[in-house]
Design a protein that fits this description.
Helices cover 42% and strands 8% of the residues. By secondary structure, it is α/β, with parallel strands linked by helices. The mean pLDDT is 91.
């Protein structure tokens, strides 16, 4: 393993094309929000918006001003022009493993992960709420969807198909560099149980200072319930027709939602599979209860 991450891989999928980073020009204070899908991306973007602008009523749609550079939803020139013209501190979204994006020691990387079983069930809701069948097909479906998610192996160089293998590959790429001073791991469960602590920690790693009352107000405004009540502002790609119902983008947001939905046999198969894909310390962190 290299002492520092390097962009050594190219990923191409229905959405992702990592060649789009080629002409990206970073700034020293850039923030990279790095997550597997359905692991708190939109949530972290909303928190970053408040920390960057210093107020709740900043009037921005975080999903629009925080571009997904390596997604092919729009020409890359449009994304690059957008961020080049931004005068505020930029925060950029990606679902790509660390070996597929540029790494800059002076930038900040916020990495948010979740119990993959919760991400699986959240993904099913995401799938059913998408208008585009091609995007919906990236998530498992049918009677054997859990088995398919559990055992489908990602083809090298491809991306976007949602499987436990791809989830573990993402986690592994960041986990091995978790001791770097500019790479910070956050767990969805911790955020759900104590959002104020998470917001305060994000403020610390971003080097921004706010009084306790302001941080508490940020945490309240970024609560799942608050964001669900304002889907037009917080749902990604809101107003574009991507969703059957933008409010349904925010389903339950709960932790351990897999309990009671998976059989003992399925849980045993999952435990064997995840331990084959990730080292024990990463598994213990991912599957934490609180």
């Amino acid at each position: 393993m290299s002492d520092l991450p390097q962009k050594t891989e190219s990923y191409l999928g229905t959405i992702t094309d990592t060649s789009r980073w080629q002409n990206f020009r970073h700034r020293p204070d850039d923030i990279f929000i790095c997550t597997p899908p359905k692991c708190g991306t939109t949530w972290t973007q909303a928190i970053c918006a408040m920390l960057v602008f210093g107020r709740i009523d900043h009037g921005q749609q975080p999903g629009l001003i925080s571009p997904w550079i390596d997604a092919n939803f729009a020409p890359i020139e449009a994304y690059l022009t957008q961020i080049d013209q931004q005068t505020h501190r930029r925060f950029i979204k990606t679902h790509t493993p660390l070996d597929g994006i540029p790494y800059y020691p002076e930038c900040t990387y916020l990495v948010v992960c979740r119990d993959p079983r919760d991400a699986y069930f959240s993904g099913l809701n995401h799938r059913d709420n998408l208008n585009d069948p091609t995007l919906a097909a990236l998530f498992p479906s049918g009677q054997d969807s859990f088995h398919d998610w559990l055992y489908t192996v990602q083809e090298a160089g491809t991306w976007d198909q949602q499987t436990l293998d791809s989830f573990a590959h993402f986690v592994r790429s960041y986990w091995q560099y978790r001791d770097l001073p500019n790479l910070h791991l956050f767990h969805y469960t911790d955020m759900r149980h104590d959002l104020l602590k998470a917001v305060t920690s994000m403020a610390d790693v971003l080097g921004v200072e706010y009084d306790a009352n302001t941080l508490n107000n940020f945490a309240n405004a970024a609560s799942f319930e608050s964001m669900k009540n304002r889907p037009a502002q917080f749902a990604p790609e809101s107003g574009t027709g991507m969703w059957k119902a933008e409010a349904k983008f925010f389903a339950s947001g709960s932790v351990r939602q897999w309990e009671g939905q998976l059989s003992d046999r399925e849980l045993a198969l999952f435990n064997t599979r995840i331990n084959n894909l990730l080292p024990p310390d990463a598994v213990n962190w991912l599957l934490k209860k609180a």
